[in-house]
């Protein structure tokens, strides 16, 4: 069955005092789009940039710092400009006259990451947190687009656009709806999707390797980042004592240099995580929930919390281009649970970087053990949302030696021996990557 797409215009009942949040969100969204358009449009002197990935790599950090938007809205603003630039380049190739795209119409693009769509209301991300707006539904919605599509459970919400009517001072959601398949087709599609669900788990650390994946990849160097940060703070403190304008300018220059270096390191780490996911055919990447991470993780400082969030955002927006889902799971007991037998106890952490199960004597790197537990938590969430005739689901953890499904079944890869030998005790060459 082909997809049936419909767009439904529905008026929003915005809570009192929250209209300005939506207006500010629009202003910052358009700032992202116009900034990107100015950067990408290089006609006639050079070729215009039409690569979304190139634009996001160049502008994402800057626009995140310049706005209060969530990562997803910044990304959507960049992509809107690149799509418009592509259209302009196509017109130029046809010999038509056109110019740099300009965005001034009131609109903001929302998808399921920046908005939560319900049948009677929508929750929208803004520069000041979320705002929940009820739909203004007619008394008799039957045989209207709202009744036929918006309120129809056979249709699901897709990417939608928020617009504002200045003449009536009203906000409207242009909800893009797609009709889902019938029960038999939906069940078959879910079964087909489940066969290809493979999860990469990622554990983040304040020392040692910045990130460790469930495939046994040790990525980045948190110790080096900490050292660079301490040296910078020491030098800045010394310069601040002089109090001169020259010292102040030097501090600003150092700060910019340090910030760029850290962001480059985080970009490299995000690319390596995505390489692991792509090389192992992953459909999902799992991180632990970053909320209140400074309170939960020993030695974590404000700098680490910022770095972890930024790394997650890099992975998230890059993964979208690869059609890989990125989600967060509860961190509870991921460091104490044995990824082999499931026994959970605080004594399993024999040392800072070593895990030794008190029940089955399974030993491996503690961060690697945690990354497998993080992956397994997302597997359970995915499994709970599936309906399978045999009671199980072929979801898998991505491991360097093969795949491990939710029910404990291990499938070795062609070049693998056993999971314990090839994955759980990584060699020096793997750790050094």
Automatic annotation (TrEMBL):
GO MF term list: DNA binding
Keywords of this entry: DNA-binding
Superkingdom of the organism of origin: Archaea
Cas12f1-like TNB domain ranges (all copies): 308-374
Region named Disordered: 412-433
Keyword Signal among record annotations: no
Entry protein name: IS1341-type transposase
Lineage, opening ranks: Archaea, Methanobacteriati, Methanobacteriota, Stenosarchaea group, Halobacteria
């Amino acid at each position: 069955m082909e997809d049936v797409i419909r767009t439904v215009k529905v008026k929003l009942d915005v809570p009192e005092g929250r209209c300005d949040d939506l207006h500010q969100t629009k202003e910052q969204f358009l700032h992202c789009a116009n900034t990107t358009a100015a950067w990408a449009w290089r006609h006639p002197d050079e070729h215009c940039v039409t690569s979304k990935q190139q634009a996001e790599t160049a502008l994402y950090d800057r626009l995140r710092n310049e706005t209060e938007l969530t990562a997803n809205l910044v990304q959507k603003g960049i992509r809107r400009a690149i799509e418009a630039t592509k259209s302009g380049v196509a017109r130029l190739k046809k010999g038509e006259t056109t110019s740099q795209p300009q965005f001034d119409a009131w609109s903001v693009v929302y998808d399921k990451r920046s908005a939560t769509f319900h049948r009677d209301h929508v929750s929208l991300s803004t520069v000041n947190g979320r705002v929940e707006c009820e739909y203004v539904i007619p008394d008799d919605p039957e045989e209207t687009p709202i009744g036929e599509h918006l309120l129809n459970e056979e249709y699901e919400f897709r990417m939608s656009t928020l617009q504002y009517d200045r003449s009536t001072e009203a906000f409207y959601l242009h909800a893009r709806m797609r009709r889902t398949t019938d029960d038999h087709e939906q069940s078959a599609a879910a079964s087909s999707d489940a066969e290809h669900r493979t999860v990469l788990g990622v554990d983040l650390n304040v020392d040692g390797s910045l990130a460790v994946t469930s495939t046994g990849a040790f990525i980045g160097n948190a110790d080096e980042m900490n050292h660079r940060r301490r040296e910078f703070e020491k030098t800045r403190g010394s310069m601040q004592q002089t109090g001169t304008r020259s010292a102040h300018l030097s501090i600003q220059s150092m700060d910019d240099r340090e910030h760029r270096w850290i962001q480059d390191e985080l970009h490299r780490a995000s690319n390596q995580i995505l390489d692991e996911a792509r090389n192992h055919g992953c459909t999902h990447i799992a991180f632990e929930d970053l909320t209140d991470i400074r309170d939960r993780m020993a030695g974590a400082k404000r700098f680490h919390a910022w770095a972890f969030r930024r790394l997650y955002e890099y992975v998230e927006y890059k993964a979208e281009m690869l059609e890989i889902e990125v989600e967060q799971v509860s961190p509870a007991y991921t460091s104490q649970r044995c990824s082999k037998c499931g026994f959970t106890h605080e004594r399993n952490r024999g040392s800072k970087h070593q895990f030794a199960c008190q029940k089955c004597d399974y030993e491996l790197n503690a961060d690697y053990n945690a990354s497998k537990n993080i992956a397994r938590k997302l597997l359970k969430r995915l499994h709970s949302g599936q309906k399978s005739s045999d009671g199980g689901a072929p979801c898998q953890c991505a491991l360097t030696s093969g795949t491990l499904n939710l029910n404990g079944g291990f499938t070795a890869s062609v070049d693998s021996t056993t999971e314990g030998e090839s994955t759980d005790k990584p060699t020096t060459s793997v750790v050094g990557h």
